[in-house]
Write a structure and sequence with these properties.
The structure is a single chain. The chain has 452 residues and is an alpha/beta fold. It is built from 15 helices and 15 strands. The strands form 2 sheets. The chain has an 8-stranded mixed β-sheet with strand order 3-2-9-5-6-7-8-4, with helices on both faces. Strands 1-10-12-11-13-15-14 form a 7-stranded mixed β-sheet, with helices on both faces. Helix 3 runs antiparallel to helix 9 and helix 9 crosses helix 15. The longest helix is centred in the middle third of the chain and has 21 residues. The two termini are 39 Å apart.
Length: 452
């Protein structure tokens, strides 16, 4: 096996052009530097353990702003600044949910209010639960069947897809719309089965939306095993639920995205690498998206450490408020448009710190084909999938302005086990996997900077 591998690598080396050999050597230098000396893992530990979860508008988020600015300066950024942005402020407060069957006693359930949900103002709200398995089933229910009831949307995360983001996209419709749909037919509050690929009892939060024309009622999520138990009960008997929650929106607040850059030696056209600095108010925001933040900072550090003379300005952006408003990404795009600042390319890491498997390319076919032509350089690092046609949420405003955008594609099999939960902690991140993701982004930006 070792002999066969050695021959294959020798043949690959012989087949490479002189330019490709030079790029291959640079790829190796980048990977070796990051795997041996990268700071991303220790920085992630500092962010998650000393600051923790950091929802927009919270005191913890404001601490993370100063933290990110310091890390960018320490990484060698030529310039670091804060970009003002008004962010929505949502607070969870105390919350509880109980159920009981006819003649039974109240039983507490593990639950989380969905992000941006209104609560019950600290009062008990109770009613009979009715269950639907799909939006189609709910649409057929007459309003009188829903009025004054609690609707349980029991739609499971599909296990059929190898690409788990497809299962997430299908299930996310229920999280986003459950409250508005329930309110439209007069229901008291909505319950969803969490958007989780795991078979456990961990509830997942995440953003939901209201229809501003109708009442704003609460929406909560329960974990899979609790959902299974509730489903079993509802098939044979009447179940009553009682919710008491204090969550709700507060006044918008002035906050900041954090930006650092290395000035271009040839021109100041901008290449963006970024992640979002905020997280939900549970767990530690390690995979979502502390990983993307420290990987982006690692890109700047590596260019500086290796003395790579970048032609264009390479900018790391730690976006504010991706989770419940995307105000940081919108403000960044707005500012770039107003100042007529030329952007060549943007990539975001916001799919976890697991092993990199590919890079999704959201751009015209000429640019896509050029990057896909570099696939052989990435293959030795386990990066092979360049077929995706999407990019990160925060950089969509740039994409809408015509900027080619991309997203790092890590292995996704474990991501939705912990996404938006108490389980998203530093301990769930592997050092080598995290650093390999930083290496892949640095390698891509090296090629973009050199060839565009």
């Amino acid at each position: 096996m070792k002999k066969t591998l050695g021959i294959s690598l020798l043949l690959l080396s012989m087949a490479l052009s002189g330019q490709a050999k030079e790029d291959s050597i640079q790829f190796s230098r980048i990977s070796t530097e990051i795997l041996n000396n990268g700071k991303a893992y220790t920085e992630l530990k500092d962010l998650t353990k000393n600051i923790g979860h950091r929802l927009s508008g919270s005191e913890a988020y404001e601490k993370s702003v100063q933290w990110a600015a310091k890390q960018l300066r320490d990484a060698g950024a030529d310039k670091v600044w804060l970009q003002e942005v008004m962010v929505p402020v949502w607070e969870r407060g105390k919350e509880s949910m109980q159920i009981k069957t006819a003649g039974g006693t109240w039983k507490s359930l593990k639950m989380l209010s969905l992000g941006n949900s209104e609560g019950t103002n600290g009062k008990d709200v109770s009613g009979e639960i009715i269950m639907v398995q799909s939006l189609e089933e709910y649409d057929k229910l007459p309003a009188e069947k829903v009025k004054d009831k609690i609707v349980f949307f029991n739609y499971p995360f599909s296990q059929s897809y190898v690409e788990t983001f497809k299962g997430y996209s299908e299930a996310a419709v229920y999280r986003v719309t459950a409250a508005a749909l329930t309110a439209k037919k007069g229901g008291k509050f909505a319950v969803i089965r969490s958007l989780s690929s795991a078979f456990d009892d961990v509830p997942h939060t995440g953003a939901m939306r209201y229809d501003e024309k109708i009442a704003k009622i609460p929406a909560v999520a329960i974990g899979n095993t609790t959902a299974d138990e509730l489903e079993r009960l509802l098939k044979t008997q009447k179940v009553t639920a009682k919710l008491n929650s204090n969550c709700g929106m507060k006044a918008d607040k002035l906050s900041h995205s954090v930006i650092g850059e290395i000035t271009g030696k040839k021109d100041q056209s901008v290449i963006v690498v970024g992640g979002h600095l905020d997280s939900w108010d549970v767990g530690e925001g390690a995979h979502d998206d502390g990983a993307g933040i420290v990987q982006s900072i690692e890109v700047l550090r590596t260019f500086k450490k290796l003395g790579i003379q970048n032609n264009h300005t390479i900018r790391a952006v730690c976006f504010a408020n991706e989770e419940n408003g995307v105000k940081g990404g919108v403000q960044y795009g707005k500012t770039a448009k107003e100042t007529n600042e030329k952007h060549l390319f943007a990539i975001e890491s916001d799919a976890g710190g697991f092993s990199p498997r590919g890079i999704a390319l959201n751009m015209d076919d000429n640019k896509r084909n050029q990057i896909k032509g570099w696939a052989g350089l990435f293959l030795p690092y386990g990066v092979y999938d360049f077929e995706g046609r999407y990019s990160g949420t925060d950089i969509y405003p740039l994409h809408d302005m015509g900027v080619p955008t991309a997203e790092l594609v890590p292995d996704s099999q474990r991501y939705f086990d912990i996404h938006h939960t108490d389980e998203d902690t530093f301990e769930k991140v592997n050092r080598r996997e995290l650093l390999l993701g930083a290496a892949a982004m640095t390698q891509l930006i090296y090629m973009i900077d050199k060839n565009w």
